[in-house]
Write a structure and sequence with these properties.
The complex is a heterodimer of chains A (about 70) and B (about 400).
Chain A lengths: L1 E4 L9 H5 L4 E3 L5 E3 L10 H9 L6 E4 L3
Antiparallel strand pairs in A: 1-4, 2-3
Chain B lengths: L10 H4 L5 H5 L2 H10 L3 E3 L5 E3 L3 H9 L4 E2 L28 H9 L5 H5 L2 H14 L5 E3 H5 L3 H10 L6 H13 L5 H24 L5 H7 L1 E2 L2 E2 L2 H32 L1 H9 L4 H11 L5 E5 L3 E3 L2 E3 L4 E4 L1 H4 L34 H18 L3 E3 L6 E2 L7 E3 L1 E4 L4
Parallel strand pairs in B: 2-10
Antiparallel strand pairs in B: 1-2, 3-7, 4-14, 5-6, 7-10, 8-9, 11-14, 12-13
Helix pairs in contact in B: 7-17, 9-13, 10-13, 11-13, 13-14, 13-17, 15-17
Classes of the chains: A alpha+beta (about 70), B alpha+beta (about 400).
Amino acid sequence: MRVHVDQERCQGHNRCFALAPNLFDVDDYGLAHELHDGVVAPGDEHQARVAAANCPEFAIVIDEEG
Amino acid sequence: MTSSHPPVLDFAADFDHMDPAWVADPYPIWDDLRHRCPIAHSDRYGGVWLPTRHEDISAIAYDTDHFSSRGVIVSELKPIIEAPVGPAPPITSDPPFHSLARRLLLPAFSPRAIAAWEPATRQLCRDLLDGLGDADACDAAADYAQHIPPSVIARMLGLPPEDDGVFRDFVHHVIETVDADPETRQAGFARFDEYLDGHIAEHAAYPRDDLISYLLEAEIGGAHLSPTHVRGTVVLLLIAGVDTTWSAIGAALWHLGSHADDRQRLVAEPELMDRAVEELLRAYAPVTMARLVARDVELAGCPMKAGDWVLLPFPAANRDPDFFERADEVVIDRELNRHAAFGLGIHRCLGSNLARLEVRVAIEEWLSRFPDFEVTDQAAVMWASGQVRGPRQVPVRILAPR
């Protein structure tokens, strides 16, 4: 599984960084990006889905096959 | 404050967000309108629209071409200072100026910058609780919640924290006199501008490490910010940083003092705190924003004309059953919670990280001191009128002080 933060949609709500700091980080402006090229380690899939489902802007894209 | 407007008989065609029925309990009104309209209209305030579905509220928030932020508080008085700057940048700014003004402020409110304020916020909460002594009754809003946000934002800005009463009076004037005559409303703004100008001048003479000094140093396109921009941003941070979070803390404590099951669960399972904070923010989101229609546009069959107001009730979006399961219930451990309490789109609440910190720490410290308490008189719980909803009074009985 891979995750990606759509930079056009992210508005810095910071939900992904709060819920899955091992998958996402934020810059000095509070805008989010994925860590490790978006690769989700085995066992972190649920966390990734929860982070995506809590993004108010629908900014997190999950590729189940990635 | 009582409204000077006639009572509302039909919220679909003549709604008023200052009406006592709305102030007391807006949720059934929005539920009804969602089925019937779903976008209501009123001729009050010179013409105002009210979307109630998440779908329409988010569409308006994202469409900055047709919906300007030059006016964000619906009142009889339309703003004099035009976009793109507006009277309180960047909340009253439109693109492209908006992102320049916002980028200046974002670093001070980033997750890591805000985390640094946790110890001071926690100490403030503990001092307030110490001040309550061993009383067996108090007011969770008036004695506790209302003192937390003004003190924190005053320290960030570099204003005297002991002036928190001045800030509160001003913020109430801005938010709760929207149906007053324009002269009365303007006079209140002018008094506070004078107060702030004194402090800004003092910062210009003696710079220090705070947000006012930072704004005086900041540049956009190689030029310092205009004095009205600096003052407008300070006004914004006070308005946005005082009533909103106070309302969220008050509503959270009101809920926990009225629902023993949720309170006991949160005391027993403190690891649920983050989810509980999000759920209480969803269910009791304090802030309704507004827009001015910039260009004629039709939305969900409604012909919106340039100059019309549009209320943007994010709290109604958060209760939309087409968007949330069990939308009208507080599910204290809700795991999937894509709520819009801090708005959507480019104007996402700048202070959302600070607000979340204050709400979480305020609840944690309260429950640590008073794990068992209850609201004594629901009829005495008074909800604020206007676009920021929260309880001004929450009388509680302390059942088992720790």
